[in-house]
């Protein structure tokens, strides 16, 4: 297997060819959103076709106060490890506080979201199986607990554009950015 070629498109290094590679997370491309936090995905939309990991998705997320994605369930398993800080896990309508080194295994079809309340921030490593198949295997569901954090849809949907429509209507779209010093605060 050849080594993948990495290129910097102004937002950090990203693979443009298939193969193995090593990249420091501070040098890799990051994705940032005012509401969803910052994340390093390690994959790339720049290849032809885009470089995606076929079997395993992995990303590093930095959640600041008030940031999260939307409450959802996926057809495949996921796992989350809090590396620093604290956050709130909402799983099957129940809330649990997570702190550094807490591990959450998410079995397929488990409804969940990790949020940072107004008093929280966290760095979370997320890993998930690939192969959603036809229909996507992802559903955004309603949840009263998640709604208290602004992380629930009003009506169940499998369409991410609908799930995030309210957020996208009032804020700038997510963007690719270089790593910002301080995101990995306890490791900088």
The end-to-end distance, rounded to whole angstroms, is: 33 Å
Main sheet characteristics = 9 strands, antiparallel
Number of strands: 13
Poorly predicted segments? none
The average pLDDT is: 88
Note the run of SSEs as H and E.
EEEEEEEEEEEEHHHE
Q: What's the alpha carbon Rg, rounded to whole Å?
A: 16 Å
Detailed description of the structure:
With 188 residues, the chain is mainly beta. It contains 3 helices and 13 strands, in the order E-E-E-E-E-E-E-E-E-E-E-E-H-H-H-E. The protein has helices spanning 144-147, 160-163, 165-170, and strands spanning 6-8, 13-15, 30-33, 37-40, 56-63, 72-74, 78-91, 94-99, 103-106, 112-115, 121-129, 138-140, 175-177. The strands form 3 sheets. Strands 3, 4, 5, 7, 8, 9, 10, 11 and 13 form a 9-stranded antiparallel sheet that branches. A two-stranded antiparallel ribbon has the order 1-2. A hairpin with a 2-residue loop joins strand 7 (78-91) and strand 8. The longest helix is centred in the C-terminal third of the chain and has 6 residues, at 165-170. The N and C termini lie far apart (33 Å). The mean pLDDT is 88.
Output the keywords:
single chain, 188 residues, mainly beta, nine-stranded antiparallel β-sheet, two-stranded antiparallel sheet
Task: Explain the layout of strands and helices.
Blueprint (H helix, E strand, L loop, with lengths): L5 E3 L4 E3 L14 E4 L3 E4 L15 E8 L8 E3 L3 E14 L2 E6 L3 E4 L5 E4 L5 E9 L8 E3 L3 H4 L12 H4 L1 H6 L4 E3 L11
Antiparallel strand pairs: 1-2, 3-4, 3-13, 4-5, 5-11, 6-12, 7-8, 7-9, 7-10, 7-11
């Amino acid at each position: 297997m050849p080594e993948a070629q990495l290129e910097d498109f102004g937002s950090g290094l990203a693979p443009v060819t298939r193969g193995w590679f090593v990249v420091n997370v501070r040098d890799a491309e990051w994705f940032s959103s005012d509401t969803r936090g910052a994340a390093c995905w390690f994959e790339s939309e720049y290849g032809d076709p885009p470089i995606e990991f076929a079997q395993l998705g992995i990303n590093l997320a930095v959640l600041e106060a008030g940031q999260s994605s939307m409450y959802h369930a996926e057809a495949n398993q996921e796992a989350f490890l809090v590396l620093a800080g604290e956050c709130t896990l909402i799983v099957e309508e129940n809330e649990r506080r997570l702190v550094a080194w807490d591990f959450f295994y998410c079995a397929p079809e488990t409804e969940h979201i990790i949020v940072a309340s107004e008093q929280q921030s966290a760095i979370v490593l997320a890993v998930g199986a690939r192969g959603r198949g036809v229909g996507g295997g992802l559903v955004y569901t309603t949840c009263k607990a998640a709604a208290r954090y602004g992380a629930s849809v009003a009506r169940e949907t499998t369409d991410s554009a609908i799930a995030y429509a309210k957020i996208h209507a009032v804020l700038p779209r997510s963007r690719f950015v270089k790593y910002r010093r301080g995101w990995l605060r306890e490791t900088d």
